[in-house]
Amino acid sequence: MHIDLSGKRVIVTGASRGIGLAIARAFAAEGACVAICARTAEAVEATGRELADQAQAVIARAVDVTDSAGVKAFVEEVAASWGGVDVLVNNAGQGRGGNLDTLTPEQILEHANILQMGHFRFVQAVVPHMRRQRWGRIVEINALAGAIPTPDGIPSVINRAACLALSKSLGMSLARDNILVNSLNMGWIDTGQWDRHFREVGPGVSREEFDRMVLKVVPLGRFGKPEDVVGMALFLASDYAGFISAASIDIAGGLQGQIAYYPTLKREFTDMVRERNAGDGVA
Fold it and tell me: 227-236 and 18-29 are packed helices; what angle lies between their axes, rounded to 10 degrees?
């Protein structure tokens, strides 16, 4: 099976690093016209220069996903330059931890504005162009925690759940226009955030020991890589996926309900490390 995406006009948000960068590289390698955006101009411009070696054409802009006018202006620029938009990969967003005792409502709303409203703004901007051509593919990059709630990380849990609901709703309502919307739900894809989680545990533990603890709940026994997401994103953007809409697909190495045990596992592991450090006299 050869997925031919040459000449497709693709927008990838949050494309300067991690999953977004891997997906943008993959579309460029297929010869698509790739428009990318991220918050930091320097980073997204550097990525644009890299993609120019393979993509049919590249547009790279700094865009704040909380700015409705800025999002619309970016999409309009892409559509005007290339005559339309075929594919949107809604990747921009970030996780946020916290629980009932540590969060304010305003912090949850701030996260919602970036995540679920950021996704909504881009869909709202691209759909008129896709409707005119009666063809479109929207791939929503979401998280497993939105499908299977965890007992911590309330902003990510509830805002990702909203993104999943949005994806399913749009996947039904837009199908009549031949605009197909599907969600990819990330498990533990290592884009650098696990380095931060490791540092939070504190001294006295090796990275190998930390990884063994984390991966106890992942059936495949390893972290995912951004490149593990690429194949399904390309497939959903192609004609091979022409009868798939409102689907929710986990890219999580078999991780399912086990994800709910991780916060408890991490706390117990952290307590164990602290007790061990206290016994060894580690400050």
Answer: 50
Confidence at 134, pLDDT banded by 50, 70, 90: very high
Do 165 and 183 contact (CB within 8 A), yes or no? no
Inside any domain, residue 199: no
Give the whole-angstrom CA distance, residue 103 versus residue 211.
28
* 59 bridge partner residues: 35
Section 4-13 average pLDDT? 96
Could you tell me the two tokens for 194? Answer: 């696990």
In a domain, 218, yes or no: no
Is the residue at 74 inside a domain?
A: yes
Question: What DSSP string describes 14-29?
Answer: STTSHHHHHHHHHHHH
Burial of 234 (0-12, 13-18, 19+ CB in 10 A): buried
Report pLDDT digits (tens) over 103-123: 999 999 999 999 999 999 999
- Looking at residue 280, what is its pLDDT? 67
Share of the chain above pLDDT 70, in %: 98
Distance, CA of 251 to CA of 23 (rounded, Å): 14
Q: What is the value of pTM for the model shown?
A: 0.93
Report how many domains make up the chain.
1
Residue-level pLDDT at 282:
55
Residue 204 placed within a domain: no
Q: Residue 15 in contact with residue 24, Cβ under 8 Å?
A: yes
Residues 6+ apart with CB under 8 A from 94: 111, 114, 115
Domain that holds residue 253: 9-192+225-257
